Amino acid sequence: MKARDRLRIAIQKSGRLADPARELLARIGLSFRESRDRLFCYGESLPIDLLLVRDDDIPGLIAEGTCDLGIVGRNVLAEQAENRRAAGQAEAYRELRTLGFGSCRLSIAVPQDDAGQPASALAGKRIATSYPGLLEAWLRERAIDAEVVLLSGSVEIAPRLGKAEAICDLVSTGGTLAANQLVESEIVFESEAVLAGPPDGFGDERAGLAALFLRRLDGVLRVRD
Ligand code: ATP
Ligand code: ZN
């Protein structure tokens, strides 16, 4: 891979992790000259640049080496790692730090009438989700034979539409579930925002920059604790 002397960090362009990620980088002492299209932000205080992208793209950008580090939900990272594993691909990223924001859980939820049933009652049912990798791994571990229905969004309305008997989706307060007459029944995966990087370090000047970045990040995270 071509040697690079600037570090590139991918963060979510807009969404739940966008503002806290920007805030964290500011507290680390990074400042940026925003480009007009706001996809690429040039680092002014250090040779560390930003790429503003969809959160789902972050693991892939790290895997292909387009970005060096990324701030992303562990749920997204683990789902894509699971899919790589299933496809027989090598591990392509590593969780370097947990960042203390963006907490949520990937949970199975069922219609209120089915509340209180054991996990084994999911057998033979259809579960709608955008996280097939994590859900299938969870079902496999418990030897529950359920059908996973892949939906890219609006998973919570699947039971009402007759597309599934249960859902598996991200929950933080539970407000969305309650609004759709669903009850959380099983936690499949616990998540928060993490700093991700490649499984091996960097072979050029980015190694020193990454070390400096991590040192400063650790300082900020310690104060927060
Ligand atoms: P993008 O346009 O970047 O694809 P998105 O709609 O996939 O955005 P958001 O809804 O902004 O993403 O969520 C980003 C991340 O925030 C999630 O992957 C998850 O890690 C975290 N998160 C925290 N609480 C919640 C929640 N209640 N629902 C969904 N995500 C949550
Ligand atoms: Zn997304």
Automatic annotation (TrEMBL):
Write the protein's name: ATP phosphoribosyltransferase
What gene name is listed for this protein?
hisG
Compartments in which it is found: Cytoplasm
Q: What function does this protein fulfil?
A: Catalyzes the condensation of ATP and 5-phosphoribose 1-diphosphate to form N'-(5'-phosphoribosyl)-ATP (PR-ATP). Has a crucial role in the pathway because the rate of histidine biosynthesis seems to be controlled primarily by regulation of HisG enzymatic activity.
Chief site of localization: cytoplasm
| Activity control note | Feedback inhibited by histidine.
Q: Which GO terms describe its biological process?
A: L-histidine biosynthetic process
Q: Which cofactor does it need?
A: Mg(2+)
Its UniProt pathway annotation is: Amino-acid biosynthesis; L-histidine biosynthesis; L-histidine from 5-phospho-alpha-D-ribose 1-diphosphate: step 1/9
- Which residues of the complete protein appear here? 1 to 225 of 299
UniProt entry keywords in alphabetical sequence:
Amino-acid biosynthesis, ATP-binding, Cytoplasm, Glycosyltransferase, Histidine biosynthesis, Magnesium, Metal-binding, Nucleotide-binding, Transferase
Molecular function, one GO term:
ATP binding
Q: Which residues form the ATP phosphoribosyltransferase catalytic domain?
A: 54-203
What are the top taxonomic ranks of the organism?
Answer: Bacteria, Pseudomonadati, Pseudomonadota, Gammaproteobacteria, Lysobacterales
Q: Which family does it belong to?
A: Belongs to the ATP phosphoribosyltransferase family. Long subfamily.
User: What reactions does this protein catalyze?
Assistant: 1-(5-phospho-beta-D-ribosyl)-ATP + diphosphate = 5-phospho-alpha-D-ribose 1-diphosphate + ATP
What EC number(s) are associated with this protein in UniProt? 2.4.2.17
